Amino acid sequence: MSTFFETFGSRNNFSTFEAFKNIGDLAKPIQQHLIKVYTTLAFLCLLTAAGSYAHITGLFLFGGGLLSFLIGLASLIVIAVLPDIPDNKNLRYGLLFNFAFMEGLSIGPLVDHAFHINSSGQLVLMATTFTTLIFGSFTLSSLLSNKRIFIYLGGILASAISMLFWMSFINAFMGSRLLFTAELYLGLFVFCGYVIYDTQLIIYRATYGSRDVVRHTLDLFIDLIGIFVRILYILIKNSEDKENRRRSSRRSNRRTQQYAGY
């Protein structure tokens, strides 16, 4: 998300008024920049899948957990601090790829849990499909819009992220299932909004000379992972609730049969 880089990274002094102007059709250099961004994004998804696979199969030295999260976070911070200059290009790409792999390790336990619930991988496949459709739809709607009117969403989305953080913090002590569910769905909507916002912001910045492929790809990658994780959580939750209802119904039927035998 762009909010992280606005805090830690270099700032571009773009006029808010200019953000609402009609930029018009995308110029060829911007199209080429977007091709690089989405090609890199696709490769990051493969690395994330490899990271999750490494956790599930135990191929890596350590599985997903606190260590992989901290290593990924360190990579994220270093990327934000390093300026986008030719001398740092290979290092920044390496850190980006490392972050994607560590992200895969970090969500590995969740993916593994989904496979335990449904060994055929149906839940993971559904989450991947829904994520692709949602991300693709919001990306296209943003790319096809001539006016970058969605840039104004930045403040609203940042406030929503802050609210999600406090909801998660409070729920860590309360353990409310209702609050957790609300956090899941609200977070899903927020990250969908970030897809539109970040896409238009990338186009806007590229129009004014910022062609930082690493930073722009990372913004979209965080949005994509945020959507995938929440969709998978929702599918797992629904599947577990359905299974619990089945078990409850079976126990109820057994009791009814026992009473009928007296």
UniProtKB/TrEMBL annotation:
Indicate the transmembrane segments per the record.
35-53, 60-81, 93-111, 123-143, 149-166, 178-197
- Membrane topology designation: Multi-pass membrane protein
Subcellular location, record wording: Membrane
State the InterPro entries in the record.
Bax_inhibitor_1-related
Record Pfam families: Bax1-I
Domain of life of the source: Eukaryota
This entry carries the following GO cellular component terms, namely: membrane
The alphabetized UniProt keywords are:
Membrane, Transmembrane, Transmembrane helix
The entry's family comment says:
Belongs to the BI1 family.
Recorded protein name is: Inhibitor of apoptosis-promoting Bax1-domain-containing protein
